[in-house]
């Protein structure tokens, strides 16, 4: 089969406002949602800043038993899924449950729920032999994060192939890439695909502190995420979820669905170098970009906008700049490149899907979101990073990339659905 | 259609045998690796049995500097990968780095590592959390470490679907090969046998409360009361048949011929569970009829309701007593994402040797009408075998492997 | 700075606990000027080492010192306030 996969529905829960509209408004206004951590007392930590969502599952219609058994990451995914389903206009009776699958990307699964429950069964770390009498019945769902895929599937009635895809911080791209493969090979017709992570918890903050990956810019939380800026000092931890309804183009057209964008190409490569380190030359990311473009039948010069990983760590932003030059050639200097992590932080496994949403919205609106807080570019980051202000421009093809611990490098190309003839 | 995707190498770290040879001889002899937990004192817990990998001394196999940054299950996975690669005769340096990928399954990551760091966090303070916590516990760790150790830079990733994951990872490996990669290191090695993992597993409600090693895990038996968990699993070298030939590997274990995956409907929906559809999809994908399947390696949940569903699917599609069914995992316990990967190894070795390994300790309950291979192995000319795997949360996967042409 | 001077033997122990020892590598006064990279320690290992030194000896190293000290001598000198 040679099916083309399109996004027909979208649900985004990102810092700074829930729902796709609020998300896009934040991005296009160039506002930041980073702040001092409120989910726990951050005072003992090196990095005390995060991009949090003001989220209460009950306000989004989750029942008491759902909010009890679901970790925050699961709740975000389920609520984002509902928005995506409504947005897609895909009514219950219109899709075949057996031909509808689910993939959810997540780097750290139910890490918040696990930490909370650990504190109880261990009595705050008193004993290695934790007490099972204090374990909650849904603890198993936190242990194995495939429970997120189950909850998403059951919330919409999908009974096709389902899985959580976990590849560190590229999970959100890889999950959607995996879903596209299932539609293209004919295994499913519809995929509920996307990603979620809710990692803002002491254990996550502590481990990123230990490797000095997150920023210590605690006195200026709103401007703490500074991708490509010379003063950047690490990423800002975030949380979020973005879920999509993906369909093959023909059936989407048949039912008259609104199409945001086509997923034209995707590839992932691994640097096989270091669990946390990156090689300066960006070779593997460049290879992923090359293959993704190839799969989409696009030349580098077709790309109108690059949605960067742009985490704001010293090594990432240089690595990535090198990868763009390597894969796009001279076009790298002409195409606008921006990092929305400057505004919504880095939600680990979720961010790839959140950035797919931003890329699709850029196509849908012909607007490129900016890189906030970019005042003095790092001399080694010498591309057009769209500082501070969004840019209206015709946007037909977008490249979005991700880079993650484990050495994962992924790239995806989205196009306006009318970009290619059928 | 593209060239067949084949399994050219296997590496095993199982509770009843470290290394493929030990595992397979123990399995054919019906030797179990289930015993009282030794990795911690299980006295205070209702369930106290596990399948632990015996005789594993990591520094005999791995550089010492990998030890502080790895969980126990990652060390097992790295060694299983080394063995699978060697078994296939693959020398990674001689192949194109972007043509080799790594796709493994995970269920709970490096949970014991995470347990230790949570204790450091809570008992001592946040500055006591290890720098390695940033990756040593997460789900993608085995794939990342295997790719680094072997210089594999192709498409890589991790699938999490509870106990179905071992098959889903191999299916994803096959997908990557069909898209043009030459080989993928796949399968799953798992384990969360630490007190924190133990308590979380018990919360799932499926651990057997029986603490007699021979009576604890009895799938398809009238005394079925849940399972015994284990650690370990298998790594498989999955390869494009033509690419394998080009590098001179004519001898392959089996072809990955068919696969299907589904999710059960929500509990209480009244809709049919998804296992039958997974099997049907796998049969269709392999273009084989039920009569061509020579053995079924069952999921064998040992939860009566789940056993019934699986037995019904098998008898409805293959007939009552219509196909030999076995569950060698009765000798290892259920290994989470390692379970189905290990069953896949058992299936390809069964095809190679013309023998169905036994299910131990079980006398099949007559109402299931299964031709359960119990007690001792059964010689059989096996051309095609099917592996079934189910994960908590409704995951169903089926994979068909067959003797190479 | 606490009064206690950290020696190469202390550092060897911390290195070993934090990041193991590569086969064939012996850390001692002979390796004071051998680069960490050559001894088999990458920047991540040195961050883990820095964390342990901070916990055990109460010496806080600033962000760059931990990973920019290229040899045991330079790291010891930074830790001991040299």
In whole angstroms, the N-to-C terminal distance of chain A is 14 Å
Architecture of chain A, CATH level 2?
3-Layer(aba) Sandwich
What is the beta-strand fraction of chain C?
under 5%
- CATH homolog superfamily of chain C: ACP-like
CATH topology annotation of chain A: Peroxisomal Thiolase, Chain A, domain 1
Determine the structural class of chain C based on helices, strands and strand pairing.
mainly alpha
Strand/helix succession of chain C: HHHHH
Secondary structure category of chain A: alpha/beta
Keywords (chain C): Phosphopantetheine, Phosphoprotein
Domain Carrier (chain C): 5-82
Organism (chain C): Actinopolyspora biskrensis
Protein name (chain C): Act minimal PKS acyl carrier protein
SSE arrangement:
The complex is a heterotrimer of chains A (422), B (405) and C (82).
Chain A: E1 5-14, E2 17-18, H1 20-29, E3 34-36, E4 49-51, H2 64-69, H3 72-88, E5 100-105, H4 111-121, H5 139-143, H6 146-156, E6 162-165, H7 171-184, E7 190-197, H8 202-210, E8 237-238, E9 240-248, H9 249-254, E10 261-270, H10 283-295, E11 305-307, H11 314-328, H12 331-334, E12 337-338, H13 341-344, H14 351-365, E13 367-368, E14 391-392, E15 397-404, E16 408-415
Parallel strand pairs in A: 4-8, 5-6, 5-7, 11-12, 11-15
Antiparallel strand pairs in A: 1-2, 1-9, 1-10, 3-4, 7-9, 10-16, 13-14, 15-16
Helix pairs in contact in A: 3-6, 7-14, 10-11
Chain B: E1 5-14, E2 17-18, H1 20-29, E3 34-36, E4 49-51, H2 72-88, E5 100-105, H3 111-124, H4 133-136, H5 141-150, E6 157-160, H6 165-178, E7 183-190, H7 195-203, E8 232-240, H8 241-246, E9 254-263, H9 275-286, E10 295-297, H10 304-318, E11 324-326, H11 339-353, E12 355-356, E13 371-372, E14 378-379, E15 384-391, E16 395-402
Chain C: H1 8-19, H2 36-39, H3 43-57, H4 63-68, H5 72-79
EC number (chain A): 2.3.1.-, 2.3.1.235
Enzyme class (chain A): transferase
Family (chain A): Belongs to the thiolase-like superfamily. Beta-ketoacyl-ACP synthases family.
């Amino acid at each position: 089969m040679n099916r083309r996969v399109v996004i027909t529905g979208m649900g985004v829960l990102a810092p700074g406002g829930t729902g796709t509209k609020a998300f896009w408004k934040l991005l296009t206004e160039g506002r930041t949602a980073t702040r001092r951590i409120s989910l726990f007392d951050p005072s003992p930590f090196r990095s005390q800043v995060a991009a949090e969502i003001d989220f209460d599952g009950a306000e989004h219609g989750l029942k008491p038993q759902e909010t009890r058994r679901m970790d925050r990451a699961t709740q975000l995914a389920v609520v984002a899924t509902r928005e995506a389903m409504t947005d897609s206009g895909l009514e219950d009776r219109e899709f075949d449950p057996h031909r509808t699958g689910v993939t959810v990307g997540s780097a750290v699964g139910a890490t918040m729920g696990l930490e909370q429950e650990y504190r109880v069964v261990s009595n705050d770390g008193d004993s290695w032999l934790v007490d099972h009498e204090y374990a909650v019945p849904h603890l198993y769902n936190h242990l194995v994060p495939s429970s997120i895929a189950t909850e998403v599937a059951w919330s919409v009635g999908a009974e096709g192939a389902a899985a959580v895809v976990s590849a560190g911080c590229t999970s959100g791209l890889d999950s959607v890439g995996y879903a596209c493969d299932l539609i293209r090979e004919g295994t499913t017709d519809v995929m509920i695909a996307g990603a979620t992570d809710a990692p803002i918890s002491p254990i996550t903050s502590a481990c990123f502190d230990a490797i000095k990956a997150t920023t210590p810019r605690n006195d200026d939380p709103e401007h703490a995420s500074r991708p490509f800026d010379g003063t950047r000092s690490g990423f800002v931890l975030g949380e979020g979820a973005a879920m999509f309804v993906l369909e093959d183009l023909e059936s989407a057209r048949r039912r008259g669905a609104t199409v945001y964008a086509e997923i034209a190409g995707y590839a992932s490569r691994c640097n096989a170098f270091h669990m946390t380190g990156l090689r300066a030359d960006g070779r593997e990311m460049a290879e992923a970009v090359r293959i993704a473009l190839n799969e989409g039948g696009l030349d580098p010069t077709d790309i109108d906008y690059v949605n960067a990983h742009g985490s704001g760590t010293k090594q990432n932003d240089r690595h990535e700049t090198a990868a763009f030059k390597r894969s796009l050639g001279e076009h790298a200097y002409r195409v606008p490149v921006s990092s929305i992590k400057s505004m919504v932080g880095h939600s680990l496994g979720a961010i790839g899907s959140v950035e797919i949403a931003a890329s699709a919205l850029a196509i849908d609106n012909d607007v490129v979101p900016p890189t906030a807080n970019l005042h003095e570019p790092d001399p080694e980051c010498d591309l057009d990073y769209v500082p501070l202000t969004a840019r209206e421009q015709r946007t037909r093809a977008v490249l979005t990339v991700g880079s993650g611990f484990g050495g994962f490098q992924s790239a995806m190309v989205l196009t306006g659905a009318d970009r290619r003839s059928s | 259609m593209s060239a067949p995707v084949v399994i050219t190498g296997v590496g095993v770290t199982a509770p009843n045998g470290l290394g493929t040879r030990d595992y397979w001889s123990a399995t054919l002899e019906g030797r179990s690796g289930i015993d009282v937990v030794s990795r911690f004192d299980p006295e205070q817990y209702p369930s106290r049995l596990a399948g632990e990998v015996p005789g594993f001394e990591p520094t005999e196999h791995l550089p010492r500097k990998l030890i502080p940054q790895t969980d126990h299950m990652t060390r097992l996975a790295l060694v299983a990968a080394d063995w699978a690669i060697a078994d296939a005769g693959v020398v990674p340096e001689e192949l194109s780095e972007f043509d080799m990928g790594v796709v493994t399954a995970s269920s709970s990551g490096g949970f014991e590592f995470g347990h230790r760091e949570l204790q450091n966090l809570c008992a001592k303070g946040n500055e006591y959390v290890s720098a390695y916590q940033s990756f040593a516990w997460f789900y993608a760790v085995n794939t990342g470490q295997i790719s680094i150790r072997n210089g594999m830079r192709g498409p890589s990733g991790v699938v999490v679907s509870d106990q179905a994951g071992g098959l889903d990872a191999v299916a994803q490996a096959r997908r990557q090969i069909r898209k043009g990669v030459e080989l993928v290191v796949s399968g799953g090695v798992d384990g969360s046998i630490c007190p924190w993992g133990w308590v979380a597993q018990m919360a799932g409600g499926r651990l057997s409360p029986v603490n007699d090693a021979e009576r604890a895990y009895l799938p398809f038996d009238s005394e079925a009361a849940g399972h015994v968990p284990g650690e370990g699993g298998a790594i498989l070298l999955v390869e494009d048949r033509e690419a394998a030939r080009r590098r001179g590997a004519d001898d392959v274990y089996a072809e990955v011929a068919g696969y299907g995956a589904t999710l059960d409907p929500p509990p209480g929906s009244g809709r049919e569970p998804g296992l039958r559809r997974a099997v049907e999809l796998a049969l269709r994908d392999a273009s084989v009829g039920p009569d061509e399947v020579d053995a079924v390696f069952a999921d064998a949940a040992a939860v009566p309701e789940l056993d019934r569903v699986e037995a019904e699917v098998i008898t409805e599609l293959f007939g009552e007593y219509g196909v030999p069914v076995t569950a060698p995992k009765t000798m290892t316990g259920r290994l989470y994402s390692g379970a189905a990967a290990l069953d896949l190894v058992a299936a390809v070795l069964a095809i190679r040797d013309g023998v169905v390994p036994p299910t131990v300790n079980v006398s099949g309950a007559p109402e299931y009408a299964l031709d359960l291979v119990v007690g001792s192995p059964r010689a059989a000319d096996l051309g095609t075998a099917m592996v079934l795997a189910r994960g908590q949360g409704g995951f169903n996967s089926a994979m068909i492997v067959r003797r190479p042409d | 700075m606490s009064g206690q001077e950290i020696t190469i033997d202390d550092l060897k122990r911390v290195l070993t606990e934090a990041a193991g020892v590569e086969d064939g590598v012996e850390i001692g006064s002979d390796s004071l000027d051998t680069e960490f990279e050559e001894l088999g320690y990458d920047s991540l290992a040195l961050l883990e080492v820095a964390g342990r030194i901070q916990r055990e000896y109460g010496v806080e190293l600033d962000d760059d010192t931990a990973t920019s000290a290229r040899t045991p001598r330079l790291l010891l000198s930074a830790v001991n306030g040299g």
